[in-house]
Design brief:
The chain is α/β, with parallel strands linked by helices. 55% of the residues lie in helices and 13% in strands. It has a single domain, classed as P-loop containing nucleotide triphosphate hydrolases (Rossmann fold, 3-Layer(aba) Sandwich). A five-stranded parallel sheet has the order 2-3-1-4-5, sandwiched between helices. The longest helix has 20 residues. The radius of gyration is 16 Å and the shape is globular. The protein starts with a helix and ends with a helix. The site of magnesium ion (MG) has 4 residues, from helix 2.
Length: 193
């Protein structure tokens, strides 16, 4: 039963992506990591303008499986289990992809490392960050622009900050309070190498 459910989760996520970019001989898995409001989605958008890749945004995919998300541990477990299967499926098809999720704990990133290692796929890690005062101003603005949202954002940021762990592998640091073009150039070069 469990397998049936998780297979359909993956299919639903895959369908929600729409048309995929063209397959390549050596696909790359890009993983971003960062607290809410640091600019992960902004950075992934900039990257997608430069390289034909599928963007797997966990916030969007969560709503495909759970239209009214509860952000419980069970919900996240089922979501990320499906995301991990989807990543593997797309990489096997030769699709470059970027995972846009907070990916704050090394334990969670280990799954991604092992998928890349097992498939012999290049892994590019990017830690996205911005000064706290910049993030706070962004989150406030994001909140003001959307009606009916709770004030949870900055609280969530502060709570998640406690659980953030340094990335143990080689990675790029992307500060979105500055011009991201130089580091973007380096990452694009590494993907195309
Ligand atoms: N480099 C930037 N310049 C201007 N605004 C930015 C930049 N990066 C992010 N933002 C804005 O800050 C807010 C949070 O960024 P977002 O990419 O949604 O963060 P995250 O995906 O990490 O939660 C958004 O409204 C976004 O448009
Ligand atoms: Mg985002």
């Amino acid at each position: 039963m469990e397998n049936v459910r998780s297979a359909s989760d993956v299919d639903r996520l895959a369908e929600s992506l729409g048309p995929l970019p063209e397959a390549v001989a050596r696909p790359v898995l890009v993983v971003v990591s960062g607290l809410p409001g640091t600019g992960k989605s902004y950075f992934c958008g900039r990257l997608a303008e430069r390289v034909p890749l599928a963007v797997l945004e966990s916030d969007t995919l969560r709503k495909v499986l759970f239209p009214v998300p509860a952000y419980t541990a069970d919900e996240s477990f089922r979501l990320f289990q499906a995301i991990h299967h989807l990543i593997e499926r797309l990489l096997k098809k030769g699709i470059h992809l970027v995972l846009d999720a907070t990916n704050l704990s090394e334990r969670h990133r280990e799954y991604l490392y092992s998928i890349a290692d097992r498939l012999g796929v290049k892994l590019v890690l990017a830690q996205v960050e911005a000064p706290p005062e910049t993030v706070q101003a962004r989150l406030r603005r994001r909140l003001e622009e959307r009606e009916g949202r709770s004030d949870a954002d900055w609280t969530v940021y502060e709570k998640m900050k406690e659980s953030a762990e340094a990335i143990h592998r080689q990675h790029y640091v992307v500060d979105t309070s500055r011009d991201v073009t130089p580091v973007l150039d380096k990452i694009v070069k590494e993907i195309e190498r």
